Amino acid sequence: MDVKIADSWKNVLQDEFEKDYFTNLISFVKSEYTSHTCFPKGKDIFAAFDTCSFNDVNVVILGQDPYHGVGQANGLCFSVHDGITHPPSLINIFKEIESDLGKPYPVSGDLSRWATQGVLLLNATLTVRSGMAGSHQGKGWEQFTDAVIAQISERKENVVFLLWGGYAKKKGAKINKNKHCVLTSGHPSPLSANRGFWFGNKHFSKTNAFLQSKNLPTIQW
Description:
Blueprint: H1 7-17, H2 20-35, E1 38-39, H3 47-50, E2 59-63, H4 88-101, H5 112-115, E3 119-123, E4 128-129, H6 141-155, E5 160-164, H7 166-171, E6 181-185, H8 190-193, H9 203-213
Parallel strand pairs: 2-3, 2-5, 5-6
Antiparallel strand pairs: 1-4
């Protein structure tokens, strides 16, 4: 099966593309996009991989579902297109960066500027039906993204994994902590953040401190 994904990832994930579950998943996604409005746009489904090559991955941020509102999802977790109102979780991410690093709150919510520096912005589920959160869960995407995480954990070293909230922590449970840096906290959603589980985690400065200690390029958050 031909999947339009960056060559560096195609080499790593080829075995997944040939499995029955993935063939069934792609059939489901094609049917959904034909019959319903779905997000992100078809060309952006694998944007996380297209903007961050396998060789460049130094940081992984795990999200859950793409945004399901019109014009929001761009294929990168927590990210929105330029000109789109920042969703609550993204606002809290930027507020933590302000507090942690003293950087001004940004105008753009498009996080491709992180992706091009080696941050893989990976949602567990890569597609969603408009207005229906979680509508494409349990169809195979989770198995695929588990395989992505496993390949990074196995083939690379000194990657920083940022696991925010219970779902991400569970999904990242098998990451080899002897080879990688795993940082966990509450989710940046208002429900979690306002209860004290997000703000002050300093994950952005901690990420750069770890990368610097391994002589790897730091991230301009």
